[in-house]
């Protein structure tokens, strides 16, 4: 694909250059000046298109490539943030369960100790 773009750019450059020479010759004659000026503009646009065809896409269309890069990075950031949130919430659930189990054991031990130390009153 890159070779085809380069070949098309080279051919377009040659056509644009020849059209520029013809338009310069037309501009030299006063009578054909109104025809030479628009052809000179067309030649300039053809050469510009040829240059963009030969350049890599990132240099030829920097704004579009920047947008594409930002969108892909946005998706990566969203997924990594979601993964981080999921793992953090999972760790939080585990920690709260562990703390809850430890608190339950401590309360049972406290109740057992309190129950052993109590004396029964007889009436």
Keywords:
123 residues; 0% strand; mainly alpha
Largest sheet: none
| Helix/strand class | mainly alpha
Shape call: rod-shaped
Uncertain runs are none
Radius of gyration: 39 Å
Strand percent estimate? under 5%
DSSP helical segment count: 4
Helix-strand pattern? HHHH
On the 0 to 100 scale, the average pLDDT is 78
Amount of helix: over 70%
Number of strands: 0
Explain this structure to me?
This protein has 123 residues and is mainly alpha-helical. The chain has a domain at 1-79. Helices cover 89% and strands 0% of the residues. The chain contains four helices and no strands. It has helices at residues 2-28, 33-54, 57-60, 62-117. The longest helix is centred in the last third of the chain and has 56 residues, at 62-117. It is rod-shaped, with a radius of gyration of 39 Å. The protein starts with a helix and ends in a 6-residue tail after the last helix. The model has no long low-confidence stretch (mean pLDDT 78).
Concise overview:
This protein has 4 helices and no strands. It is mostly helical and 123 residues long.
Helices and strands in order:
Layout: H1 2-28, H2 33-54, H3 57-60, H4 62-117
Helix pairs in contact: 1-2
